[in-house]
């Protein structure tokens, strides 16, 4: 249902999460735990009651056939942001309006009920900074998301806005001029040479500290070797892959700019996700991010020849990233907002 909505909002069948990715997320990690709740029409399900006061519904084996009106997905970060919960809401297809149409009264009632339950459950989990997101077609207002009215009514405010873009990966990417004194490197699945590992860790932390997140309450991720090794382990266990492309200052043997792409098992093999791009603070505004991203297209062709399109989500106010993606010929597919409520 979430996929159906994302596909309709973006007009792109690739805008969806594979079942493998959802199941993997539900398994949780030492970084976060995720719970899914269902809003059921008709008779209340019977069964063992969870500590949050709602009955468990089996998700494997014999699954009862309830009349689902919608779902609530709650993720709680465990290492940083220990007051925060991320809430995701999904309307059952029967309540989902046709693209561009408003919600009818029944669907509005379901949306409001889901949001109110979500707030209640997240607070029972001890979280007081509650974040949710809206997604809608490019060029439409935030209210085009079926949950925006319910968020606003519950007291949420928009704190950050992003646009999702798609870049076509050319069959023969343009040759990129690597400035004299620098060399470009590509590492698959975190296979980073020992000499560059600490640089990469430092740059990933800087990316988290410096990326624009509007007025949203966020705490930067502090990367270290253990955390990177754990991320690598999770990647392997869900059969996902990353391609990291780095620009190295040869004289000092340090990484000065970095960009990363990812692929997920079960997702469309023609699609990659552009996750992080960062330039060391002292090297910014010298076209290094522009070049390393262009160079990444060549490496993408080389290592993942099936990939035809790369997707990214970039801050609406991020002048540099918007500029870089415009230069790569990116086209907008959808827009999203991060909403926040302090309970
Ligand atoms: C965003 C970031 C990667 C840009 O790196 P960079 O190496 O400075 O980028 P470039 O020098 O290639 O600049 C690209 C364009 O954006 C412009 N630009 C760069 N920084 C800018 C800024 N702070 N304000 C306005 N314009 C800026 C440049 O002038 C350039 O325009 P031009 O091609 O017309 O000259 C860097 O600022 C960064 O690491 N930020 C923190 C991490 C982050 O936010 N990453 C993006 C989300 S993952």
Automatic annotation (TrEMBL):
Region of interest (Disordered), residue spans: 1-20
InterPro entries linked: Acyl_CoA_acyltransferase (IPR016181)
Entry protein name: N-acetyltransferase domain-containing protein
Lineage per the UniProt record: Bacteria, Bacillati, Actinomycetota, Actinomycetes, Mycobacteriales
């Amino acid at each position: 249902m979430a996929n159906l909505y994302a596909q309709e909002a973006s007009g792109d069948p690739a805008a969806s999460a594979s079942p493998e990715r959802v199941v993997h997320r539900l398994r949780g990690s030492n970084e976060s735990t995720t719970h899914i709740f269902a809003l059921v029409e008709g008779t209340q399900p019977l069964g063992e009651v969870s500590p949050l006061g709602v009955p468990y519904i089996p998700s494997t084996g014999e699954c009862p056939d309830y009349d689902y009106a919608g779902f609530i997905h709650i993720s709680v970060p465990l290492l940083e942001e220990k007051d925060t919960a991320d809430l995701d809401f999904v309307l059952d297809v029967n309540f989902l309006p046709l693209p561009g149409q408003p919600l009818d009264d029944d669907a509005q009632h379901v949306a409001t009920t889901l949001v109110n339950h979500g707030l209640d459950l997240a607070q029972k989990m001890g979280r007081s900074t509650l974040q949710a997101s809206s997604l809608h077609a490019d060029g439409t207002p935030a209210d085009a998301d079926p949950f925006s009215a319910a968020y606003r009514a519950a007291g949420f405010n928009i704190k950050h806005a992003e646009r999702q873009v798609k870049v076509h990966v050319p069959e023969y990417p343009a040759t990129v001029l690597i400035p004299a004194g620098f060399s470009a490197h590509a590492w698959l699945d975190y296979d980073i040479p020992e000499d560059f590992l600490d640089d990469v860790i430092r740059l990933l932390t800087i990316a988290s500290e410096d990326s624009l997140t509007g007025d949203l309450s966020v705490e930067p991720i502090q990367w270290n070797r253990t955390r990177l090794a754990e991320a690598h382990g999770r990647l392997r266990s869900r059969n996902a892959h990353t391609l990291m492309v780095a620009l190295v200052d040869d004289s000092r043997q340090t990484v000065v700019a970095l960009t990363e792409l990812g692929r997920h098992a079960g997702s469309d093999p023609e699609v990659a996700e552009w996750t992080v791009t960062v330039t060391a603070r002292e090297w910014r505004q010298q076209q290094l991010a522009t070049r390393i991203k262009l160079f990444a297209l060549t490496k993408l062709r080389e290592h993942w020849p099936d990939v035809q399109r790369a997707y990214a989500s970039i801050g609406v106010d991020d002048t540099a990233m918007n500029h870089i993606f415009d230069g790569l010929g990116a086209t907008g597919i959808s827009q999203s907002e991060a909403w926040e409520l302090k309970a």
